[in-house]
Sequence to fold (466 residues):
Amino acid sequence: MSKLTIDNVRDQIIGIDNKVPLLDGRLVQYINLDNAATTPTLRPIFEKVNKFLPWYSSVERGAGFKSRLSTEMYRRAREIVRKFIGADRDSYTVIFTKNTTESINKLAHRIDFASDDIVLRSIMEHHSNDLPWRLNANVECININPHGGLDLDHLDYLIHKFSQHIRLIAISGASNVTGYLNPIHEIAAKAHAIGAEIFVDAAQLAPHREIEMRSLDDPSHIDYLAFSAHKMYAPYGTGVLVGRKDTFLKGDPDSVGGGTIELVTADEVRWAPLPEKEEAGTPNAIGAVALAEAIFCTQQIGMERIAEHEARLSAYLLHKLEKLHGISIYGDTDPGNTPQRLGVIPFEVDGMPHQLLAAILAYESGIGVRNGCFCAHPYVLKLLNVSSQRIVTYKEEVAHGSHAGLPGLIRVSFGGYNEESEVDALIEQLQRIVRKEHHGEYVQDRESGEFKPKGYTENFDPYFSL
Ligand SMILES: Cc1ncc(COP(=O)(O)O)c(C=O)c1O
Fold:
């Protein structure tokens, strides 16, 4: 295959031409505008995995040629990840996990928190970078500013207030709701100045921007970082946790069993060296190979080209959305600022439930977006300015089994392969929706909150079946 570039990457997306059924019986090409959740697969990654499969065997567990080859490829994948984020071998260990969520849970268990240690995380975090800290440490929350970005003054206030009790600042590199990029190295320097550490949730950052862990003697270094391969065009079940070796050398692993030990006697265990100590059970060699290839693909295209392309598409969408009446956009609405953010744009059609809007886009134009609170309930409720009284009502409704009234937004998130014509299709459908010209009649399921066209039965079997 010729070199992967931002101009030809679309041709390399598996399933890009897939047609999906609409409510009126037509078949149209699917438009995926939900890349912040999961990206489709890139053909070179699929091909690399297929080439590996005939050689695939047990990793770190066999003497046979295929086992030795698989072990070597698994180790190489680890080194490719290490280079991708600039983590030096002496200071950092690269641990393969299932996804970012598993990485953060592992880290939250592995940091040896004292009873008065505090983790600062922000209100803009994905639940995966919030709940593990809530369960394992005392937490305080960094506020957002009126535009929905991180309030750095409030961070300074919290640092001043809790100073040496702060053990860790856990912050997203980029928001999965508004696409805001956080100044991670600036925050790292603030953390290190008070003897704390920083964890960066790079689930959204890694697919769109270059990352540098930097050296431990640089005050702006990152101590811990996590990301997922399925957001980088490699959906084969791998995530990464990169972290300071000294943390993981101490104590017992959070998950134990095969692969984590050097020796076990009837009454004693000697843990394996890092990173094996932290990877319990048979490793996902296929996932690691896929992630390594995803990194090569990203590097071939060039992270800057990806960022430029996504910024152009975001500016195009923002310009078009601005001109539509009855649409409210959240976060940074300025098309001139898109190079300084990710291509993640949340909005709503005034007066229309987000679940209904998402359903009309899907059933009447084959457009896939995400709706709801995007696993960031506190952030979206704050962006929507939902009162605490309303939140009490929502809690009661959920306790009584109804998600129908839950607030939320629509999110468009771009990948490097999306194109302007897809934005045009979205805008065209939104125009119809704000003019109330969509044709389906939809009914809401009280329990899930989802809207479905009345009387419509779905049959997936002609497309895919198990
Ligand atoms: C910012 C952020 N953090 C964490 C996660 C969790 O990632 P995963 O589901 O791959 O564990 C996501 C997923 O959308 C995310 O956007």
Remarks:
- The chain has two domains: 9-40+302-453, 56-299.
